Amino acid sequence: MEWETVIGLEVHAQLSTRSKIFSGAPTAYGAPPNQQANEIDIALPGVLPVLNREAVRMAVRFGLAVDATINHHSVFARKNYFYPDLPKGYQISQYELPIVERGRLAVDLDGEARTIGITRAHLEEDAGKSLHDAVDGMTGVDLNRAGTPLLEIVSEPDMRSSAEAVAYLKTLHTLVRYLEICDGNMQEGSFRCDANVSVRPRGDSRLGTRTELKNINSFRFVERAIDYEVRRQIAVLETGGVIRQETRLYDADRDETRPMRSKEEANDYRYFPDPDLPPLMLTDAFVQDVRTNMPELPAAKRERFCATYGLSRYDAALLTATRELASYYESVVADGGLDPKLVANWVSGELLAHLNSAGLDLAATRVSAAGLAGLLRRIADNTISGKIAKEVFEAMWADGADADRVIAARGLVQITDDSAIESLIDEVMAAHARQVAQYRSGEEKVFGFFVGQVMKASRGKANPAKVNDILRRKLAP
Amino acid sequence: MSETLAELVRGLAAGQYSSVELVDASLGRIRRHADLNAFITVDEEAARAAAAAADQARAAGATGLLLGVPFAHKDIFCTAGMRTTCASRMLAGFVAPYDATVVARLRAHGAVTMGKTNMDEFAMGSSNETSYFGPVRNPWDRARVPGGSSGGSAAAVAAGLVPAATGTDTGGSIRQPAAFCGITGLKPSYGRVSRYGLIAFASSLDQAGPMARSAEDCAYVLAAMAGFDERDATASERPVDDYVGALSGDLAGLRIGVVREHFGAGLDGAIGSAILAALAEFERLGATLVDVSLPNSAASLPCYYVLAPAEASSNLARYDGVRYGYRATGYRDLEDMYKKTRGEGFGAEVKRRIMIGTYALSSGYYDAYYLKALKLRRLVADDFAAAFAQCDLIAGPTAPTTAFALGAKMDDPVSMYMNDIYTIPVNLAGLPALSMPAGFVGGLPVGLQLVGRYLDEARLLRAAHRYQQATDWHRRVPPLS
């Protein structure tokens, strides 16, 4: 039988507010345990939550970015359960009336445009963490994370392959960083993903029983976890078994999913509206204010890069992958008054290659946008050739020097003087009389050989265009 | 100490006595009447120090509204550095690192905190018998209950241990004990007073208010307590009226609604007569009486006993033994620790309500109980809105009986719950209401309840004040040694 995979994703994006969603405690990552939890976060008696306006603003910004309905009336509810990392004994979350509903995200899957529905996005608070190896023989509880604002983004079960799921996830990841609502750090848990996976005979319209995969903290693991789970479900069904609706943990070390230890009784969270928080009412003015302050979104920026700079779709997508890279690119173009395609080649080529091999973020680049512009200006004004420029870039990367200093110090200024080039050519032709004869008898392919020899003789500094011109003239029979 | 708080404020200002003298007198009475069990915690040293500081401040020209006045807080308000137990084993050793907003505001106005008063555990009860620290006795008759849940505050004021105290009222917990102890207690409109630092029982109903000898006293204390607090998202941002200033003025043209349903079966006949006499007094003072009806008030009790326990079941989940408070010993694993901690840390009434509330919110029962109760709540509020189209205040009995004997209702929760039949609808509607003494039956005080429109505390206090200027029920003090 042929099987079809059906995937929906639930993403928890930590919102980059300075303080927590219901308290004034800071949200920065990595503080010593329980140093960023105040009386509200640890749920002392009598404390009350007050909603962080900035978190609301960020949720609305997201909703607008995915063409969703912004609910002007949404409700916070309590999700009740006991766990040591949940100080109040309930999590405040939006349940029946979320702030964002019915959006969509356009995703590029290997050149094919797909639209993934977004069922809803709602605000909620994060829990703390249990520390199982911090205290000898006991479990510790760190409540620094408790109360960190989360936007839970729930997709429709619209994805049909793990590759599509990853494409959706990456697009979403880019979007939340563009919107500056989430830092997207998957290692620190700022951007977490659960996947709902089921399979069904191709052609069936009913959904199969799904399992929920938790603990997938990288794009690669999302793909592998889903692939494993799809294989497992198909194997179960093809041997006459049934899929149990359950939550499974992905174990990256063993590349498999395993059922989580399940309680005997089904969880009943006893949701009800939180009486400490009045319904969240958004005014038109508030939503409009968020709308007018929206940053340019990735798709729009991509289109603009194609139209304004004449870039290919591929280059535009590459250069707009993050807001920071796009802005780096644009400042190089603007700074040097440079050919956008030349800049695109250098940013997507040398710069990204160096960043990647050094394992650096763009923020830590050793060649600034101004520095690269300075280098590319020297190509544009024929001071150096593109080839020499790569050498200069290496030097700039190594010690942060600017292009002109490197060029001057190393004597790399391009030879553009016709007579100098002519004498170089004369030497090469004299040394290779046989090849000159070959060329003149019609074997034009040896032309390249002469170019190479002349460039070599100039140690790469001869202006290639002039070398071409003069060679052609001199070689002519 | 039979003076009212307002009289003490004036006496202090006139230099008739010092705060240290008042506080010493208060401490003496608290010790002498320790058998009432009105206090859970008394901090003599801190009280004397605060009194001395108040006297110094006055000498330096300070004039706080309550500067140097002895005061007590129901042990449901968090007090920095002084333990806050909520009358529960669960919090028997709990010391908050912060003051409740109410505590901080009263302190800022100069009130001297004597200590923390006894109450029903987590404010769940109508007799003060569910306290982990034992029942409070009614100063009028030590064999009787003071009412609840703010029984300690009511007894302390009635016995003259302090001139005023805070209470909280979720379904009648200020008004019913005020009635049983013969004092004046005001439950403000929901949102008028901050709930920050008030240990939650039922968040959508809880409201803090003053308990004192007179309406005038309540005006002073409410003036210090009321107002918006950015730490409470349910606090009203509407400006606060001048409650003390609003006391003057007469009652000409005031329309008082009399609720037909209040005088039906279940009301003690002698109480009914006392209430009718009080209404006649209001007529003499210039008010007119209007018949009104609250047809859905019969549904209030079942509605309340779904909503309040539902919220409580969630509010009390934080007492799990993990971070603070009581933790059982000898548990096998996490789940066992939860069960033993909560099984041993909470008393019977609290556990009963947690179970009722958990049930009401459970999947499959939510619509039939919680959701239906929410709809009933709306009907009850609509009744009041309709009634207030015809009148400015509603008057009636606070409770169907006078103070009953200790132990009389502990085995009959429903009969205990019936005590709040007149007070609960007011909480459901979020309206302000007070109870003041309006006569005696069998030597025990009778409480008259006045209910006002939302945020109309000023009119409520004026009406009560005019009544108290014309009568002396509020000046009666129990025959204590």
Can you tell me about this structure?
The complex is a heterodimer of chains A (477) and B (481). Chain A has 477 residues and is α+β, with helices and mostly antiparallel strands. Chain A folds into three domains: 3-289, no CATH class; 298-410, no CATH class; 418-475, Orthogonal Bundle (Arc Repressor Mutant, subunit A). Helix content of chain A is 40%, strand content 21%. Chain A contains 15 helices and 16 strands. In chain A, the strands form four sheets. Chain A has a nine-stranded mixed beta sheet. Chain A has a three-stranded antiparallel beta sheet with strand order 5-4-15, with no helix packed on it. The longest helix of chain A is centred in the middle third of the chain and has 20 residues, at 219-238. Chain A is elongated. With 481 residues, chain B is α/β, with parallel strands linked by helices. Chain B has a domain at 5-251 and 431-475: Amidase signature (AS) enzymes (Alpha-Beta Complex), CATH 3.90.1300.10. Chain B is built from 15 helices and eleven strands. In chain B, the strands form two sheets. An eight-stranded mixed beta sheet of chain B has the order 4-6-5-10-11-9-7-8. In chain B, strands 1-3-2 form a three-stranded mixed beta sheet. In chain B, α7 (215-225) runs antiparallel to α15 (457-470) and α9 crosses α11 (348-361). The radius of gyration of chain B is 21 Å and the shape is globular. The mean pLDDT of chain B is 96.
